[in-house]
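Data follows
____________
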Amino acid sequence: MVNFKRKNDCNNLNRLYEKGNFRCLSIDFSSKADLLCILKRLYQKIYIPHYVIQEIERPLELEVFSPDVDKIKKMDFLIVENLTSKEIMKAKELVKRHNIGFGEAQSGILFQRGGFETVIVADARAHRMLKQEGVGVIDLVDVGFEAASKGIMNPRKFADALYQKGHYRTQRILDILGRKS
């Protein structure tokens, strides 16, 4: 799952105003770590591929209660973006070619649709593969540094929340927290 930000394109200001920032990210990690409010403050609107919503709802299909599903679905700043059938086929090709998740692949295709500046992923392989595809991509941890640059949250606290509550544990987070793997 990934995160997008629209390019600041002066020729497209009306569309930018209507759509706001396009973000589609690891909503599940962010929700578990209670960081959705930080995302809203940073980006105002977060756009996610429809498949990401299906992934989030999967526990309910298995009759497993997940408080995060309700929390995520109640977030008024999350907007679902649909792909065309042609774009879905391209996403399936990305999955096969790079062995990445379908949510990450769909997000990469949305980026390639145009008008987006950044994709934020919580998957090192997807990060590398999407970058190879020409997608402007950064790691979810970088959101913490963006929040810090705007005085919203310390990046160490952001990383700690991902680690403790979100169970997102990468070497980069361990380094920020000063922990050994």
